[in-house]
Amino acid sequence: MKRWITAAICLVASCSLAPAQNLQNGDLVAICGDSITEQHIYSVDIEDYLVMCKPVSGVRSEQFGWSGETSWGFLDKMPIFTLPFKPTVATTCYGMNDGGYSAMTDDKGQRYRTAQTAIIEKLKQSGVRFIVLGSPGAVDTDTFHRPNADAAVYNQTLGALRDIDRDIAQKEGVAFADVHQAMLDAMAKAKAKYGNSYVFAGPDGVHPGANGHLVMAYALLKAMGFDGNIGAITVDLAAKKATGSDGHKIISFDNGMVTVQSSRYPFCFTDDPAGASTRSIIDYVPFNDDLNRFTLVVTNPGADRVNITWGNQTKEFSATDLAKGINLAAEFLDNPFIAPFLDVQKAIQQKQARETNLDKNLYFPLNQQAHELSGSEDAINKINASVESTFAQGAQHALDLPKPVTYTIKIDPEK
C-alpha cells in the first residue's frame, strides 16, 4: 500500500495526499462550498463513494453548500451554519465567487488568503481533525461569457486563487485538492474528443454538469488519500478455487461460474457518453485507476484467451492480462451494481437536498436570531442539539442504505 504524508504531491491531480487512516469509523465529513456544492452533485458523488465504496467504514457526510457564497461569507456563517454539527473532517471549495468574475487583483488575492486561512484555523479550533482545502474549479472554455472577463481571463483568476490555496495548505499542514487543474485537464481532453460544443459547465459556464462534478469529486476524494481498492476476486481455474477480499464473499464456484455477494460497491457511472454525463468524462479523468479498482484475477485458465461475462456483457481478455488482474469497474460499465447504486444515489441526493433546506431555511435563521438575543445560551444549545440529532439520523440512514449485491461472473476459456 502506498503511504502518503500530507505534503506529498499527487502528480495527476496536483493534490496533497494524507493517509486514508486520517478518516476513521464514526467520522463526520462536512462538504462545504458555494452554489456548485449546493447543486448536490459532486457532494453526492463524495457521499456515494464513502457510503457505497466504503474506503473507511462508518463515515458519515453532510453537505453545506450556500448559493453565491464566498470564503469570507462562509467564515462569518460557519459558527452557526456548519460547526454546530461537530464535523471531524471537512472539505472546502470556494473561490468561484471570490474572483468576482473578472481579472485577478492583489486586493482580491489578499482578501481570499486572509479568509481561507481563517477558515482553516477556525475548523481546527472547533475539533476538525482532517481538512481538505479544495481550490476553486474552472469555467467552461466555450460557454462562459461575462462582461468583465472571458473564459481564459477568468480561469487565470481561478488559477491564481488555486495557487493561494496551495500555499495556505502547505503552511497550515492540511491536505490540498487542485480541483482547478483537474477540471481544466479533463475538459480539454473531452472537448478534443467531442468538439467545442461538448458542455462541461453550462449554460452559464460556471455550474458543471455531472461530468464536471465527477472531476471535482475525484480531486477531493484523491486528496483524502484513499488507495482506490474496492476489492478483488481471485480465481484459480486449475485448482477450482475462488476467493474474495473483504466485503466480497464467495457464495459458490462451479464450472467457471463464480457467485459473489458484495457489500462494497464499485462506483458506477451514468450513460449518454456524448452528453454531460459521468460516462462521457470517465476516459479523461483517472477515477477508475486511482479510486475505483475492483479487480478480477484469473490464473491457470488452460487457454490463451478467456471470455468473461459479467451482467449482460461478455468481453475477451488474454490469459496474461487476467493473471495480472483486470478492473471490472472500468471494463464493465454496465454491471449488476448499476441499479442498486443509482437507487442509493437518489436517496443521498434527496437527503442532501433536505439538509440544505433545513439548514438554510430553518436552523440557520433560528440560530442567527438566538445569537442576537442576550441570555439566549439555552436556546442556542437546544437548537444545536436538534440540528445535530436531525442531521445525524439522516447521515446514519445513508450508511444503512446499501444492501449486499449478489451476482455471477462467468469465466469461459476459449477452446
Describe the structure.
The chain is an alpha/beta fold. It has three domains: 8-223, SGNH hydrolase (Rossmann fold); 229-338 and 403-413, no CATH class; 342-400. The protein has 13 helices and 18 strands. Strands 4-3-5-6-9 form a five-stranded parallel beta sheet, sandwiched between helices. Strands 12-13-18-15-16 form a five-stranded antiparallel beta sheet. α6 runs antiparallel to α7. The protein is globular, with a radius of gyration of 23 Å. The relative contact order is 0.13. Residues 1-19 have low confidence and may be disordered.
Rounded to the nearest angstrom, the distance between the terminal CA atoms is 38 Å
CATH topology descriptor of the largest domain: Rossmann fold
The CATH superfamily of the largest domain appears as: SGNH hydrolase
In terms of structural class, how would the helical and strand content be classed? alpha/beta
Q: Please name the CATH architecture of the largest domain.
A: 3-Layer(aba) Sandwich
Q: Please give the count of helices.
A: 13
The backbone outline, from C-alpha atoms, is: globular
How many structural domains can be distinguished in the coordinates? 3
Give unreliable regions as ranges: 1-19
What proportion of the residues is helical, as a percent range?
A: 40-55%
